[in-house]
Structures are given as C-alpha cells and as structure tokens.
C-alpha cells in the first residue's frame, strides 16, 4: 500500500510499505484523513530519538473500519471512527487511576507503532471512538489535537475566566482558544510572532492580538486587564521566553498551563509564583474522555477549522512536509493529508 515514508534521517518520500497485519483486539482502518503534527515536523528537523527512521508517522487520524479481529466487540466493519494517538497498557498504576495518557508503557502511532500516513493502519479497537455522521473527515483528523486543548481546559479550576491569553497560534493554540470560548472564557487574547497566525486567531474569535516583535506583550496584557493580569494564560509554544511571558502576564491567583515543548529549561520568577500564588500546570496529550468531548464539540458546531486548515492528497505529503519544514506557509496553519 501507499504511504508517506520516513525511511532515513532528513528523507521523506511516497512509496510502498507492507499492508498492516490484523492482530487480536485490533482492526484495520481505511484512513480517511490524517493531520501533520508539529511534533512530527520537530522530530524530522531535530532528528528526535523519539521518532527514529525507518518509520511511517501520523497519529492524528480517522477512517473506516474495513476488517476486525474476531475478538473485537467495540466496533464493526463499516464504522466511521477516530483513534486516540496513544495506546495505553491499561494495567499500570497511571492507567488504573484514569491517567492513561501518562502510562509509561504507552504506544504511540507513528513513533513505536506504524502511523497513519498511509492508506491503511492497524489500530487496537479499545482506542477508537465512533465518529458521528455530521463530523467530517477533516474534523475527525483534528479530534486528537482538539482533545489536547480540551485536556488543557480540564486542568483549570477557573469556571468563567474573564481574560484567557493563548501564546502561540499554531494548531494547538487555535484549538485551545476555541475550547476556552466553548468552556466559558469571556475574552480571548492571542499572542504570536506571526501576523498571519494572529489573523487566524482573530478569525476564530481572539481580540486583541499581540505580536512580541512589536508589542510589549506583558505590559499590553496588564493594560488590557486594568493592571491586574490575565486570569488564565496558556503557553502553546514551550520556549523559555513564552513560558516566562505566561507567568508574568497572569494575575495573582491566576492559572498558567504550559503545553508546548519547543524548549526545555526555563527560568521564571519564583517570587511571582509564591507571593502571587500563581499556579503552573503542565499539560500532556489527552485522555479518552477528552477525545469524547472533542468529538462532541465538532458535532455541535463549536469549532471553526476553515480559516486555518488545508487538505492535500497523500501523494503530496512529502512535498507538503518539506514545505512546512523549510518555509511555513502564511495562509494556513495545519495540513491534513487525505490518503
Ligand atoms: Zn500531534
Ligand atoms: Zn499503563
């Protein structure tokens, strides 16, 4: 079958790979749509040891069940489904306490098991959710990243935060903004170094928009909140500078969530955190419950993807991947491949 392959460092091509094999508890999906994730671009750009070629990547996908092992009862042939990106062990302490996304034994599509940049992929039935008829394949491919945004929201204590700031308007940031709106945020502020990305944030409801190339972001957010600071700041970049901005822009008693992984060691003011009782949470991936919420948000029309997504046939996958790496486009933020 045809696949977007990652056969060696710095190489991406379209070619043949072996058909997936049907294992107990698993199904074969005919992949309808699969998103190219920032983590996969980073992996290729930095030769990440977490994604070592030869590999077929792709962990944000939906499709139709075309074969099921005899012991599968969760879904049947013909069902439209979306998959979680993680395959937890379901036995360890994290899995048993309901935090399967932190399972140390977790499998991940396109990392330690074959991914969905292909015509077909094998998936354990227990990580699948049904996709309602009114949720499109493009939306289905965005259910996992949307669930990442839902997971961020689930970590917050605030119910109706007046001002929510999202730093970084890539896929996760653009989805986190819309989850915040659906979740009760009253005002959305977007921060990005790209005016094109800020326009996309504006199209999904953010106002005002701040660009650190031009604006003193922390001072602007303070001014916008009459000197107080934002109730919630979500950093969807993960660079030391943006993490620091998040802590500096949040009000006393406010909440910061870090979801980006662009950088690592970060210096923040311990005094601001302690004396202001500012909380900082890390958010990683998503749970099955977050996936269900994400699918429901799409089903009920709460999430706008048109202004910032672009579909491409799988055949163009290598070229699109290369373009996203070399010169990120200004007219869309997320590429979705249609095998
Ligand atoms: Zn992803
Ligand atoms: Zn586990």
Short précis:
The protein has 339 residues and is an alpha/beta fold. The protein is built from eleven helices and 17 strands. It has helices at 38-45, 93-96, 137-141, 143-154, 171-183, 195-203, 217-224, 240-249, 270-275, 288-299, 317-326, and strands at residues 2-8, 11-16, 26-35, 60-68, 80-83, 86-87, 107-108, 120-124, 128-130, 163-167, 187-191, 209-210, 230-235, 250-258, 279-282, 309-313, 334-338.
Shape: globular
Give the averaged pLDDT, no decimals. Answer: 97
Radius of gyration, taken over Cα atoms and rounded to an integer in Å:
20 Å
Question: How many individual helices?
Answer: 11
Largest sheet, if any? 7 strands, mixed
Percent of residues in beta strands? 25-35%
Spell out the helices and strands N to C.
EEEHEEEHEEEHHEHEHEHEHEHEHEHE
Number of strands: 17
Bound molecules: zinc ion
Helix content: 25-40%
Q: Terminal Cα separation, in Å?
A: 10 Å
* Class of secondary structure makeup: alpha/beta
Low-confidence segments = none
Give the helices and strands, then pairings.
Elements: E1 2-8, E2 11-16, E3 26-35, H1 38-45, E4 60-68, E5 80-83, E6 86-87, H2 93-96, E7 107-108, E8 120-124, E9 128-130, H3 137-141, H4 143-154, E10 163-167, H5 171-183, E11 187-191, H6 195-203, E12 209-210, H7 217-224, E13 230-235, H8 240-249, E14 250-258, H9 270-275, E15 279-282, H10 288-299, E16 309-313, H11 317-326, E17 334-338
Parallel strand pairs: 10-11, 10-13, 11-12, 13-14, 14-15, 16-17
Antiparallel strand pairs: 1-2, 3-4, 3-8, 3-17, 4-5, 5-9, 6-7
This protein binds zinc ion (2 copies).
One zinc ion (ZN) binds next to helix 2.
């Amino acid at each position: 079958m045809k696949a977007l392959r990652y056969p060696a460092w710095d190489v991406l091509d379209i070619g043949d790979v072996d058909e997936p094999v049907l294992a107990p508890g698993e199904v074969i999906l005919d992949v309808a749509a699969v998103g190219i994730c920032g983590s996969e671009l980073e992996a290729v750009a930095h030769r990440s040891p977490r994604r070592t070629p030869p590999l077929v990547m792709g962990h944000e996908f939906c499709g139709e069940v075309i074969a099921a092992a005899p012991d599968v009862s969760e879904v049947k042939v013909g069902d439209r489904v979306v998959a979680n990106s993680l395959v937890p062990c379901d036995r360890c302490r994290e899995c048993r306490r309901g935090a399967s996304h932190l399972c140390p034994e977790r499998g991940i599509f396109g990392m330690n098991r074959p991914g969905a940049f292909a015509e077909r992929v094998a998936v354990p039935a227990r990580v699948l959710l049904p996709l309602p008829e009114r949720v499109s394949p493009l939306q289905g491919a965005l259910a996992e990243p949307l669930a990442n945004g839902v997971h961020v929201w689930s970590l917050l204590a605030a119910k109706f935060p007046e001002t929510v700031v999202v730093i970084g308007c890539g896929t996760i940031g653009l989805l986190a903004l819309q989850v915040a709106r659906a979740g009760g945020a009253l005002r959305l502020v977007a921060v990005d170094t790209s005016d094109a990305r800020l326009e996309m944030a504006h199209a999904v409801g953010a106002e005002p928009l701040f660009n650190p190339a031009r604006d003193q972001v922390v001072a602007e957010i303070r001014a916008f909140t009459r000197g107080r600071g934002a109730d919630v700041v979500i950093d969807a970049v993960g660079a030391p500078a943006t993490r620091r901005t998040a802590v500096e822009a949040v009000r006393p008693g406010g909440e910061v969530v870090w979801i980006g992984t662009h950088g690592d060691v970060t210096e923040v003011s311990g005094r601001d955190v302690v004396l202001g009782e500012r909380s900082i949470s890390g958010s990683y991936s998503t749970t099955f419950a977050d996936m269900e919420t994400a699918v429901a948000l799409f089903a009920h029309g709460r999430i706008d993807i048109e202004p910032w997504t672009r579909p491409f046939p799988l055949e163009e996958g290598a070229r699109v991947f290369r373009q996203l790496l070399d010169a990120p486009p200004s007219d869309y933020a997320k590429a979705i491949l249609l095998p």
